[in-house]
Amino acid sequence: MGLSSENKIEDIAKKIAQSLQGLPIEISTKDEIITVNVKHENLVEVAKKLRGVGFDHVKSVTATDFPEQKELEVIYHVSSFGDLDLAKVIVALKTRLSSDDPRISSLIEIWPSSKYSEREQHEMLGIVFEGHPELERLLLPEDYEGPPPLRKEFKVKTEGIQG
Amino acid sequence: MMNLMDLLKWILDLLFSPWLFVPLIFPGLITVFAILLFIIWFERKLAAKVQLRYGPLYVLKQLGGAIQLVADLIRYLFAEPIVPEQTDKLAFVLGPIFLFAASFIPCVIIPVSSSFYAIRSDIGLLISLGLLTFSPAIILIIGWASNNKFSLIGGLREGYLTMAYEIPLFISALSMAALYGTMDLIEMVETQSEGTWGIILNPLAALTFLILAFMSTSRFPFEIVEAESEIVMGPFTEYSGILYGLTMGASYVKFYVLCLLFSIMFLGGWQPVPSLLSWSPLFSRIILPGVILLLKSLVIMIFGVFLRSVYPRYRIDQALKIGWHMILPLSIGSVFLSLGLILLGVVP
Amino acid sequence: MSEERTIELLIGPQHPSSGHMRLYAEVDGDIVVRLRPNIGYVHRTVEKLAETKKYIQIIPLVERPSLADTANHNLGYVLALEKLLGIEAPPRAQYLRTILAEMNRIHSHFYGLGIHGIMLGSSTIFMWGFADREIMIEMAQRLTGARLTYSYIIPGGVRRDLPQGFEDEMEKALRYIERRLKDYGKLFLRNPVTRARLEGVGVLKKEDAIKLGIVGPNLRASGVPYDVRKVQPYCAYPELEFDVAVREEGDSMARVLVRVEEIRQSMRIIRQVLKQIPDGPILSENYLKMIPPKWKEFVEKKGRIKFPAIMANLRPPKGEAFSRVEAARGELVYYIVSDGSVTPYRLRMVTPSFRNVVLFEHLIQGCRVADIPAIYGSLDYFPPEADR
After folding, report:
1. Which CATH superfamily is domain A3-100 in?
2. pLDDT (tens digit, 9 = 90+) per residue, B248-280?
3. Could you give the domains of chain C?
4. Residue C154: CA atoms inside 13 Å, Cβ hemisphere, count?
5. For chain B, which ranges sit under pLDDT 70?
6. Do A62 and C335 touch (CB under 8 A)?
7. Hey, are the CB atoms on C350 and A59 less than 8 Å from each other?
8. Measuring CA to CA, which residue among A117, A31, A30, A113 is closest to residue C47?
9. Contact C237, C268 (CB under 8 A)
10. What residues contact residue C91 under an 8 Å CB cut-off, 6+ apart?
11. Is there a contact between C213 and A138 if contact means CB atoms under 8 Å apart?
């Protein structure tokens, strides 16, 4: 990556920091990824601001289980199609919530593209996205019972042949 | 010895008596089956040629899998025709049989030559076309009786399409009747043998009749009623075994009859009969004209089945639009063309 | 009578053109008033399985969901893994990765074209598409030794070097494909029936495409020139010249034409790669020096990598990595979290088809029943890829 594009990323990071001024967030940049850590109460507000900057779609919604901290981490990877300069960076909007009763407001109003990803994370990690219109089973069979499969408490039965 | 010769002669006479020969041999049942076996094989072979593959090959390899369809027929015969629980069983089982019969019966009106026919009527053209209109109704019944949503949609599609093709089909046929001044199929051929072929006199009627023949027998690009990738064979979704074989065969038989009518109306029927072997009435009256008529129809059929490898299928609304907005005006135009030709005195 | 005007059609999972999924369609006459995709029939739990497998074992795992496009899936994962490991492949390996990725793109687009053909009723295009995809399968076999699931791209490089005479054979193959594309134009793309079925059908507006996060040819057919190969070039793409195929119409025809144009661009890229490919090793120096001297000779002579022992137990440092590549059907995203052990803590894989699922409910509403397969085919949607 050339020097100019690195400058660009810094500019964009500054722009984001400016628009998010006053909100309790942490911003860090690594390569083309700008990570924005927020508390989940502020998620909707920050998302709206990012939408205003020009980040118009969600690439993926990823949730990860951390059983030691009893926490789930939810990351929205967002970027832009409309502005190809912004498209060079990816904003990772990170938040943490308790894994006992994980509730978070859905960002589908701000980014409709998160619809199916949120639905998938709902069934895979048991997160309730409040405000999501059809929070139903997506990939799992209808008769599946047990813990959400991507939680660490769900153990894959292996045949024990790998070293 | 004399007795045997007498018996043989009696059998031959019986066989070549028109009321047996026409429904049974040509253009009737035996030819129908031969044509079915040939045209479906040829269709597959032709499509395979375009699509860079072999097509039917392993049943009689020397002739390129020519009797593949015999094998298929045997398979259909021995496969269990499953009748699902929820169907209207009587209609479901009888439907394909009536469908095949309704497509086949118009054959008996078709004359083999000027002096050899089973039924001769002043309104032969009307009778044959009228008999052909039975099959859409039976397809509708089948679609309803199958108790399947796809079948229902398929039946309804057939219903809509019937409206779009039946009317212009009759109009363009009648424009030829007006041109020849008769609805008798034999007289039509004789009028053409004196003048020129119908296709040259009134190409508009020929074109519309041909397109409508494709439309009414689900040839591409109007393969809308079956539409495998949309409604899974439409009315015939639930059929299996020989019942399915009959439904599939019926549309080919109907196509065959329409092609015979096309040859008679537009391609001079069995004319010109070469004077070859004229000493034998058997040849000059029956076999030669029959073969000529059959070959002419076969060319049209081959053209029809070849379209499969060229076209995708239209949507139902587009096909209806073509029927009502394009073919109907064209067929009415063909009536005026015929009237004009009569007024100009081109035809006697 | 009751006010029930609609019937519910269940299209799939056992339907000739549904693929491994089900579409709930509510039909009023011939108009689809509501359509919901029901996916998950071929869900293989890739993300969960990845948590039990070592890094190198995950390569075949992530390839499997998309049979027509394995190289790009392989590439995306390896790029993310390399970011974690902090290594980079040498230039020759980068070019070899590019060539396989582009071959897969051609392969995948022919596959999609063929499926779309049979959905519209054109059995000829189905047979042609599947026959011509064979060209690229055969060439990939020369290069990698496998027909579909290559596992060719490994951390730090690729498994094999170019075989002898590959350039000439590839030139022959490309000439053949060029000839064939003319036939496709004559028989399918300019066929009046095809145009009647596809033009103006299933129009995706630019704003909607952006809003719904659509990717790949479907996005570019709606006038958004987003292509990861241009926006954030990886492998050898910065040094190669190609155009991004964009169309403004956004209808089904535009999506097909964008794919056909991408086949042309991919051929252009392959030609450049074969001309410009630099000499050098095909595996990163970090790993090359770990190969025992006895095997090293073999590697240099035959151009085939013997895996150094460290590959079996790759331990990336704690951290996370995000990668995106332009797969044949669109942008493919990987996100890996490592806790410093031999297996990833979390692997997130968002495939282009999964991001395009939303189009079913968006595009098909208000269309006719016959348009369902026409639009489905134009999306080049691949259920196993979406379900993972």
Report:
1. NADH:ubiquinone oxidoreductase Nqo5 subunit (3.30.460.80)
2. 889 899 999 999 999 988 888 787 776 666 667
3. 45-350 (1.10.645.10)
4. 23
5. 1-2, 274-279, 347-348
6. yes
7. yes
8. A117
9. no
10. C236, C278, C280
11. no
What is the β-pairing status of strands A25-30 and A33-39? antiparallel
Q: What is the pLDDT of residues C130-188, one digit of tens each?
A: 999 999 999 999 989 888 888 899 888 888 888 888 999 999 999 999 999 999 998 88
Give the chain B residue nearest C18 (alpha carbons). B229
> Does residue C127 contact residue B55 with C-beta atoms inside 8 Å?
no
Residues of C within 8 A of A33 (CB-CB) are: 322
Contact predicate A52/A83, CB 8 Å:
no
- Which pair of structure tokens corresponds to residue C174? 């490309």
Can you give the three-state secondary structure of chain C, one letter per residue?
CCCCCCEEEEECCCCCCCCCCEEEEEEECCEEEEEEEECCCCCCCHHHHHCCCCHHHHHHHHHCCCHHHHHHHHHHHHHHHHHHHCCCCCHHHHHHHHHHHHHHHHHHHHHHHHHHHHHHCCHHHHHHHHHHHHHHHHHHHHHHCCCCCCCCEECCEECECCCCCHHHHHHHHHHHHHHHHHHHHHHHHCCHHHHHHHCCCCCCCHHHHHHCCCCCHHHHCCCCCCCHHHHCCCCCHHHCCCCCCCCCCCCHHHHHHHHHHHHHHHHHHHHHHHHHCCCCCCECHHHHCCCCHHHHHHHHHHCECCCCHHHHHCCCCCEEEEEEEEECCEEEEEEEEECCCCCCCEEEEECHHHHHCHHHHHHCCCCECCHHHHHHHHHCCCHHHHHC
Nearest to C271 by CA among C388, C99, C80, C106: C99
Chains that touch C (3 or more CB pairs under 8 A): A, B
ipTM associated with this complex: 0.88
Q: What residue spans define the domains of chain A?
A: 3-100
**Residue that is written with structure tokens 């009307």 in the block:** B126
Burial class (CB in 10 A: 0-12, 13-18, 19+), C16: middle
Q: How far apart are CA A106 and CA C339, in angstroms?
A: 28
Distance of alpha carbon C95 from alpha carbon B187, whole angstroms: 77
**Strand A128-130 to strand A103-105: parallel, antiparallel, or no bridges (unpaired)?**
parallel
By C-alpha distance, the chain C residue nearest A51 is C211
Residue window 209-228, chain C: list those with CB within 8 Å of chain A: 209-213, 219, 224-226
Nearest to C262 by CA among C278, C242, C245, C279: C245
